[in-house]
Specification:
Radius of gyration: 28 Å
Strand order of the largest sheet: 5-6-8-7-9-10
Shape: globular
Number of helices: 19
């Protein structure tokens, strides 16, 4: 008896169950014709399997159906599927080391000399991602605020935002796959997501900061891109937000943008916001001896008065100076002046700002009194300033947009109370990590989000921007300018600084006025070096520890020793081998004591 195999390509059906599905008999096989629309995948499998039993037996044998391209592990034999060139993967190339790569809150981060195998593998994976989303993607080589010997990879999705969270475990899996298993691993991804062979090679945008290991990692990344059949656009040394900008602009326009385009848009928006006759004061910027120095120096040349901007900590040659006792992360965490910034040289009205190592974070500070005392204006303060400016213009509109400020548990309690009770703005809390804040912010017409560390931005919905264009009022024009002076996909220290200066000028505020809006609850943020921070597990909002067992009870007992307004929580870092400790209390001395006691609890349970 003859046996006939019916090969059924269900690749489009499983992705789009509303599309018609049909098949007919191969030549010389028993005549069957069947069509179905809107049937769930599992039901379709049952339907076709039942049809096999109903075939006229006559002189034929049992007929088997082989499903191609569907869910549930069915065999795939679609010739249009992307093909893996196994010859491009020599088994001995780019071997893994003894360590495991972990995908943290902002991609991969570890010692720079360990990262080469992961860079090669991420080059291949991002080619697959680019084909799947039919757009360009990016990889930024940077470890942000980490010390100079570290490096990392921030994976930029097709829309300019961080890599979709559903692909984070895939990235970690591929990063830890032995070279000889890479073809099979890629084929499984191609099969799972039904990635088709592209008509043109996909493009991966590459950028890097000033770290010593950047060029070698870029070479490995390019090797992976090429091995997977992709091409790359190497932007060289740029800030992290600039690379996000390039990918985003390609997504929305289909064109390739560069640094000159970035500058033109920023300068035009800044000029539109600062009204004629108004000026911004001089500002000193701590550039953390990183790529932000190069970016800001270049941008300042195009601003109306480049002499207003004094850049310090701009040594990008001696790599060990990167983030060392300077930069936005140091200033915000330590609450003290960075190297090469002396309070004796400033008066109370002077503006001072600090970028982090890859220029995606911004904080301000100023000096007051004799002798001069350091005062921090962190991401919470920036969010309040932005919200105040935006509400000024929104109140002049006929439109009534939805608006919210997004914060995390690290936000100072006094800032949250001011936003909610004085500004009258909705405040929404999320877990730590800009990807969580961004996800929530885009649910509003206007979403302002900042972490206390100075990483944040403002996002405007496309629909609201279209309404602003139609309204045509002066207030609408100002809000459109605000939307052009912020990154819609991530924090950008340079753009955020310009918006802060424009906001203060338009509101007629001094830096003292800004600082006097509310009084921060005394706080302290510290970190505890531990061998395995992942042992600490948290509730969704990261304010309580669920593991190790008993640790949260011990923290609660310590907090109970202090004023009733006190609070403290711990969180494992997603980028470093540390556990972060945050404490608020009624006085700075008590906040310091509370943080130190909670540190001891962490050591007891995690070391």
């Amino acid at each position: 008896k003859l046996q006939f195999l019916y090969f059924i390509d269900c690749s489009s059906y499983s992705d789009h169950p509303s599309l018609p599905f049909s098949f007919s008999s191969p030549p010389c096989a028993p005549p069957i014709s069947m069509q179905s629309q809107g049937v769930a995948w599992d039901s379709l499998v049952v339907l076709l399997s039942t049809a096999a039993l109903l075939l006229p037996m006559g002189g034929y044998g049992v007929t088997e159906f082989i499903f191609q391209g569907g869910e549930g592990g069915y065999e795939e034999m679609n010739p249009a599927r992307m093909q893996v060139n196994k010859e491009a993967f020599p088994a001995t190339a780019h071997p893994l080391g003894e360590w495991k790569f972990s995908y943290g809150t902002a991609g991969f981060r570890t010692k720079g000399d360990r990262l080469e195998p992961a860079a090669y593998r991420m080059g291949m994976l991002m080619v697959c991602r680019a084909i799947l989303k039919q757009g360009s993607v990016g990889v930024m080589l940077s470890a942000s605020h980490n010390q100079h010997e570290d490096n990392g990879m921030k994976l930029v999705d097709f829309n300019g935002a961080m890599l979709d969270a559903t692909w984070e475990p895939i990235a970690e899996d591929v990063a830890n796959t032995p070279t000889q298993d890479l073809p099979a691993k890629l084929e499984s991804i191609i099969s799972k997501f039904q990635i088709e062979q592209p008509s043109t090679p996909p493009t991966v945008y590459i950028g890097m900061d000033t770290r010593l290991t950047g060029p070698s990692l870029s070479t490995s990344l390019k090797s992976g891109i090429t091995a997977a059949g992709g091409v790359y656009h190497d932007y060289g040394v740029v800030t992290t937000p600039q690379l996000h900008f390039f990918v985003w602009k390609t997504h929305v326009t289909g064109k390739v943008f560069d640094v000159s385009d970035y500058k033109d848009i920023a300068v035009s928006a800044f000029k539109s916001l600062v009204d004629e006759g108004k000026t911004t004061p001089k500002i000193t910027i701590d550039c953390s001896n990183g790529v932000g120095f190069l970016g800001m120096k270049d941008l300042a040349e195009s601003l109306p008065d480049k002499d207003l901007y004094t850049l310090v900590n701009g040594d990008v040659v001696e790599h060990e100076k990167l983030n060392h006792l300077c930069g936005g992360d140091f200033v915000q965490k330590e609450k003290r002046s960075p190297t090469n910034v002396n309070g004796e040289n400033f008066v109370e009205t002077d503006h001072v700002a600090a970028f982090d190592g890859d220029a995606d974070r911004l904080v301000y500070f100023y000096y007051k009194g004799t002798p001069p005392q350091f005062h921090l204006l962190d991401g919470d303060r920036i969010a309040v300033l932005y919200a105040k400016l935006i509400k000024k213009y929104v109140d002049e509109l006929s439109l009534k947009p939805t608006m919210a400020i997004i914060q995390t548990a690290y936000a100072n309690g006094a800032s949250t109370a001011y936003m909610r009770d004085t500004l009258g703005t909705e405040v929404v809390m999320t877990p730590t990590g800009v990807k969580h804040l961004h996800h929530k912010a885009v649910q509003f017409d206007i979403g302002v989000y900042f972490e206390a560390n100075g990483h944040g931005t403002v996002v405007f919905s496309t629909g609201f921007l279209e309404k602003l264009q139609s309204e045509g009022s002066e207030a609408a024009s100002k809000l459109i300018a605000v939307s052009s002076l912020v990154s819609p996909v991530c924090g950008d220290a340079m753009l955020d600084m310009l918006l802060c200066e424009a906001a203060l000028a338009n509101l007629g505020w001094s830096i003292q006025d800004w600082a006097s809006l509310y009084v921060d609850a005394p706080s302290r943020m510290t970190k505890v070096q531990v061998p395995n921070p992942s042992r600490v597990k948290n509730t969704w909002d990261q304010t309580k520890a669920t593991e190790p067992e008993g640790m949260q009870a011990a923290i609660d007992a310590v907090v109970a020793e202090f004023h009733s307004s006190s609070r403290s929580f711990v969180r494992p870092s997603g980028t470093e081998p540390i556990v972060r400790v945050y404490a608020e209390a009624d006085t700075q001395e008590n906040a310091d004591r509370l943080a130190a006691k909670v540190e001891d609890v962490v050591r007891k349970f995690v070391d």
